[in-house]
Amino acid sequence: MDALSIWGKEFASALGSLVPTIGWVPRLSWTGALQRWERNCDIEDPPLRVKCFPMQRGYRRGPIGWVSRTAVRQHQHLLAASSGHRSPVLILTSPYYAPIAGLWKGPVVYYVTDLLTKYAWSHEPQIRRLDKRMCQAAWLVCPNSTRIAAYLNEQAQCPASKIVVVPNATRKANLLQRVPSAPAALPADIGDLPRPVAGVIGNLAANTDWELLERVVSSTPMLSWAFVGPTSGPAGSWEQHRCRRRLISMGGRVRFAGEKPYGQLRDYARSFDVAVLPYRRREPTCSGSSTRFYEQLSACRPMVATNCVAELLEKQPLLSLASDANEMIAQLHDLHAAGFRDGYEALRWETSLGETWETRAALMMAALAERIKARTSAGDRGSEASVQALELTETNP
Q1: Which pLDDT score is estimated for 195?
Q2: Based on the structure, what is the number of domains in the chain?
Q3: Engineered SS bond to 235: which of 66, 194, 228, 241, CB 3.0-4.6 Å?
C-alpha cells in the first residue's frame, strides 16, 4: 500500500516477479467511509495484480481517519486478500498508514520514497509523529536515499539497524545488451529535429529549473531540445511559470512531446545525444532518489545535471554536475566539441546492470530475511513462521 506512483508500480511489479504480490490503490471520495467495495484493477505495463479500494477523503486528518475506521477496514481487506498465505509481508509507503502497521501481526516494511515533511501541504509535526509510529511498528525501514534515512534515524528515532536504503531504479527490460556506439534513432514525433539533440524527460513541473533552462537553451544554438513529459503541474514561482511558457511556445528546435507511457521513455532516452537533468534546488527534490537518472543511465548517453539532488553528488563520473547555467552551458559546448562521447559509456552500461527494480526488490527481500532471523534469535517466537515462509520462497520463488 499503495502502488499509485510510477515507482510504486514498478517496484511492486519487480517484487511480483519474485513472490506473489498485490498492489493496493486507494480511490478517494467524500463518501469513502460508507463504501464497502473492493475490485481488481490489474495492469499490464508493468504487469501487476492490483486491488482498488475506497478511502475516505480527508483520512490524513486524525479525527476523520478515526471516525471512518480507515485502519480497521483496510486491515480487514488486507487479511482477506492474504488468506492462505503464510506470514504475509505488508509493505506500506505512507506514514498515514501507521495505524494499519500497528494492527498487522506479520512482518511490516516501511518503504519511504519521499521526505513528506518538506511538502508545502504537509503538517510537519503530524508526519513526524506518524513516522515515529511507523518506525516502531516496522520490522524493516527502506528509504530511497541517505538523506531520508538520516531524517528517519535522527527525527523519527528509527534505529539504524532497521534501515536499509533502497534507491529508485529502472526496468530490467530497459538494459542494453552492449555498450551503444551512437544514439538510437529519434522517435517519430521528434524525428524531424536536427541533431544533436539534448533531451529532458520526466514530470516537467516545479522540480525543474525553468529559469536555468531558458538561459541554457538560448545559449546552445547548436542543439535541438526535446522535452518529454507532462507540463500540467505547477512550475513553482510566477517567473518559473513564465520561463516554461516561453520555452513551450518557442517551437523550431525546441519540441515538447507531451506525456508518454512509462514503457516508452527508454526510446527517447536512448535517442538523445545528451541528457539534461535540470533539477531545481528545493525540497523534497533534493532529498529524493532520481528516477530520471536511472532511466538515462540505462540508455548510456552522456548526462549533465544540476547539483541540486544530494544522491547525484555521488554519481560522478557517470554524469557531469553544474552549479549554475553558465557551467551547464560550458559542459554542453565541451560535449558538442567531443562528439558527445565523454569516455564513460562503458562504465554507465556496466553500472546500469545492477540498478534495476528487480535488484531493488531482491535487496529488500534479503534485508527483511535478515531482520526476521535477528528477531527470531532474540526470542520473538512470532517470527518463526516468517522465517519458514521466506525459506520456502527462496527455495521455490
Answers
A1: 97
A2: 2
A3: 241
